[in-house]
Amino acid sequence: MHRAHAPATPAGNRRKAPPAFGRGGNEGDLELFMAMDLAQQTRVIREGFEPIVVTRIARELLDVQAKTLLESLRLPNSTIARKKSSQERLSASEGDRVARVLMTFAHARDVFEDAGSAAEWMKSPHVELDDEPPLAMLDTQSGFDRVRDLLMRIEFGVGV
């Protein structure tokens, strides 16, 4: 039986992303990650974010100290510092928490139509979240689900 094969692609024409693509270490990576589909995001999370992504999200998106973000995500500062110094990537579990922040920020930015408003909303306590800020809920999947549900209710005008 003869199988048809896709034509070989010359090595110079491959569209393979550079090693750090979307992992937080390069300019534009945060936006690249947020623009990826869920399958691509899952792959990047499993392959590991660069630890610098925590500092970049804190500074560039949320306007908080990295320590504040780490505390919200229940990630030890010492672990992230060690991974930075040893050039080790975040584990899938650590990266999943970080990704929840990126996904929530992107959704909030779409809902509020402004990055600054999205960041403020993520840092402000909300009665629907037992007076916790959305950022403090993102360390668990169930907390992320509650925040996502709240954002969808705000987005579609359902009673909040």
TrEMBL record:
All copies of domain Antitoxin Xre/MbcA/ParS-like toxin-binding, residue ranges: 107-157
GO molecular function: DNA binding
UniProt-listed InterPro entries: Antitox_Xre, Xre-like_HTH, Xre/MbcA/ParS-like_toxin-bd
Signal peptide: none
Highest taxon of source: Bacteria
Domain Antitoxin Xre-like helix-turn-helix: 43-102
Disordered: annotated span: 1-24
Pfam families recorded: Xre-like-HTH, Xre_MbcA_ParS_C
Protein name: Uncharacterized protein
UniProt organism field: Paraburkholderia humisilvae
